[in-house]
Each structure stands twice: as structure tokens, then as C-alpha cells.
Amino acid sequence: MTTTNANANANANATATATADTAADTAAVLRYYDLVDAGDVPGLVDLFTPEATYRRPGYEPIVGHAELERFYREQRVIREGKHTVCTVVAQGDQIAVHGEFAGELVDGRTVHLRFADFFVMAPGGRFARRDTFFFAPLV
């Protein structure tokens, strides 16, 4: 009987830890959007692990802090804008986000579109991987 109680307590502790980790990971994801909207490149890059991979339509995979920083400073076609997060779903080490973005591109055009992001979290609450998809007419 003691073993059963010990297992039940261990499972309860694991669930509580997973819930706390999920809440902290979700907060990190939401912080990412605040940082990117504020143009805080060092802050947002720090949310990724040093070897993280970011996949985004139209670009080769962006790997590591140096490439992430180069992307956000030199290659990103967005000059400024605001992300609005509509839905966040978290399970284990994965977090999915659906939202809207409104802003201005570097060429002066305005853009308003929906997006979906999928994050894989590493231990310690940093992003190991991020994949972005846009809802935009292409075909």
C-alpha cells in the first residue's frame, strides 16, 4: 500500500512539475511576441537555445543564435508590427500558437495576416525549434 501511495505522490509531483513547466514555457512563447514587436533582437534570440532551428516559408532553416540575429536584423521583410495571439495549445514540450499579425513591410506595404507557430521547448524553457506558417493567398 505504501508503494501505491508513493507512486501516486510521485505521479502527482510529476504532473505538478509538468504543469508548472508548461505554464513557464507558455509564458516564454508569449514573451517572444512582445520582444519581437518591440524590436528587442538580443532578448528574443536569448529565448532560443544556442543550436535552435527556425523554419519559415521562403527561407532556408535558420540555425543558431548568430543566424537568428542576422535574420531579425537584416533579412526579415517586416519593418514593424503587432502580433495578436488568439489561441495557445501546449502539450508536453510542444506549444502551438494561432494568431494575427498587422504591420508594415520594409518596402512600405502594410500587411495583415493570420499565422500559426509551432514551438518545441528544450529543458530550461528555451526554444529548440520554431516553425512558422502564414495564411496568405499564394495559389
UniProtKB/TrEMBL annotation:
Pfam families: SnoaL_2. Residues 29-129 form the SnoaL-like domain. InterPro entries: NTF2-like_dom_sf, SnoaL-like. It comes from the Bacteria. SUPFAM superfamilies: NTF2-like (SSF54427). This is Nuclear transport factor 2 family protein. It comes from Actinophytocola glycyrrhizae.
